[in-house]
């Protein structure tokens, strides 16, 4: 028995070491964002040579961000979304979503944005478990996602709880593969494929789901936190997940969504001057490119320790050996 235990520890030692000490991503710069409603920045995407942001409090506008030396300035692009489709969520959950939208604003509750190579933008609505497309040519339209998407997600334990529905979106450059992140309790990743003009679940919509908790960064001195996803990005035929409670970015397989490698940004994000009141000021938005990652912080009207009351965008460097496929 002792020999078996020793062999197991020897085999697992490299994995345990890498899990305990992830490579820390370097913060290249941080800039506050002026002009986003209520400070609720919930999604980021680089489209047509510019960084775009979405707020979960705005149902009719997307923000183009322009940077100077000290800040990002948001300019609103308005649109009119048609009535949202029925996502087959239970009546009680739909009513709680509706009531929350009436109280805080943002009935559609846009939680993420992505774009394809043609310049079409895609916004995910948490309240309706739906995706709005803003095409380059034509009017905004809701994608006709397969009814089995929500049904399969709920059967896997996802999309069961209020304020724990779809939190991230990523589209491949061709606009033919659409990935969605379920936030928490359980968290998971979903995929649909476009075949001609129809979106389908090819071999099942659910790539991955899991429950449980994970250790919080040592800087917080907190107990384990529920596993969650708050952002999703597609880069170089890989999925990248933003895991806000763990303060890390993970690369995942497109076919299984299993984690391949993770990088931490806790050392840069959790310095004393950047801390917010508990449960606020969390990383909500992610975009990954060859040179690094954009991470957006939703401050929800709260100020951090240094007094900054606007949402923040961090530009993190790429890992030392890049984002590539090395295990």
Describe the structure.
- The longest helix has 19 residues, at 2-20.
- The strands form five sheets. The chain has an eight-stranded mixed beta sheet, with no helix packed on it. Strands 10, 11, 12, 13 and 14 form a five-stranded antiparallel beta sheet that branches. Strands 6-7-8-9 form a four-stranded antiparallel beta sheet, with no helix packed on it.
- It has helices at 2-20, 91-104, 148-155, 266-269, and strands at 27-34, 41-47, 50-55, 61-67, 72-78, 110-115, 121-125, 130-134, 141-142, 166-171, 177-182, 187-195, 198-200, 206-210, 213-214, 225-226, 231-235, 238-243, 248-252, 259-264, 282-289, 292-298, 312-317.
- Mean pLDDT is 90; it is low at 4-19.
- The protein has 327 residues and is mostly beta strands.
- The radius of gyration is 19 Å and the shape is globular.
- It contains four helices and 23 strands.
- It has a single domain, classed as 6 Propeller (Neuraminidase), CATH 2.120.10.
- InterPro entries: Phytase-like_dom.
């Amino acid at each position: 028995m002792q020999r078996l235990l020793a062999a197991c520890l020897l085999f697992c030692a490299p994995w345990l070491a890498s899990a305990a000490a992830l490579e820390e991503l370097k913060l290249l710069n941080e800039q506050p964002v002026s002009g986003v409603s209520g400070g609720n920045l919930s999604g980021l995407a680089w489209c047509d040579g510019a960084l775009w942001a979405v707020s979960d409090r705005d149902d009719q506008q997307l923000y183009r961000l322009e940077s100077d030396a000290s800040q990002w300035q948001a300019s609103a692009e308005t649109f009119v979304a048609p009535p949202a489709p029925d996502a087959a969520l239970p009546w009680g959950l739909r009513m709680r979503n509706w009531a929350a939208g009436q109280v805080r604003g943002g009935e559609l509750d846009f939680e993420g944005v992505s774009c394809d190579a043609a310049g079409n933008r895609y916004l995910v609505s948490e309240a309706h478990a739906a995706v709005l497309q803003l095409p380059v040519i034509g009017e905004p339209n809701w994608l006709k996602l397969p009814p089995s998407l929500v049904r399969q997600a709920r059967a896997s334990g996802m999309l069961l709880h209020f304020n724990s529905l779809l939190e991230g979106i990523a589209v491949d450059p061709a606009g033919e593969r659409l990935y969605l992140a379920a936030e928490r309790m359980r968290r998971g990743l979903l995929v649909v494929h476009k075949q001609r003009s129809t979106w389908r679940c090819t071999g099942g919509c659910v790539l991955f789901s899991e429950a449980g908790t994970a250790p919080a960064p040592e800087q917080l001195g907190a107990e384990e936190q529920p596993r969650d996803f708050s952002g999703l990005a597609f880069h170089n035929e890989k999925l990248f997940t933003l895991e806000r409670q763990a303060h890390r970015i993970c690369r995942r397989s497109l076919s299984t969504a299993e984690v391949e490698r993770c990088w931490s940004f806790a050392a840069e994000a959790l310095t004393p001057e950047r801390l917010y009141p508990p449960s606020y000021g969390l990383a909500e938005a992610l975009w990954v490119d060859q040179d690094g990652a954009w991470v957006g912080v939703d401050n929800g009207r709260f100020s951090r320790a240094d007094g900054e009351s606007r949402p923040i965008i961090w530009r993190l460097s790429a890992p030392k050996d890049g984002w590539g496929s090395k295990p």
